[in-house]
């Protein structure tokens, strides 16, 4: 059997594009010998010193809560809760179109069986240092000109890929092979085209 390749994936729960890529990586795990470890980054932290316009600034101000709750769950209950909590939050944010952060957090905690008291960390900076460490572990590998998702594999990391819809089955594996080969070349920096569709959720 092929040796399993360790992959690291950084996400912010509010990002629909990271959600799409995460669903792809779940498909990749089924068709390639890879095992993903899930980590948080924070778009709110990334953009804290940037003026991106009133609407986006307000979104960033409101988006500390979910990622703070995920990092608190990791610190207090273990790494194994990161992915289930991400799945529960993301399903509500991106499939359910739920906008109320407090409702999403409360329902997600209940779904995965974590204490509801963790919701209090949405407005607490107690674990912000752990959040910053997790964030920088991924983002420092790719620079300041990108957001989420970030994927790390075998000593190199990259932003994206940004896709819609998420590839499935053999297509997921084929895309993984290509992305991994391209990103592994030290001189590669960018490949992009204008997005012509919104995230297409299943």
Automatic annotation (TrEMBL):
It comes from the Bacteria. This is Disulfide bond formation protein DsbA. It comes from Jiangella ureilytica. InterPro entries: Rv2466c-like, Thioredoxin-like_sf. SUPFAM superfamilies: Thioredoxin-like.
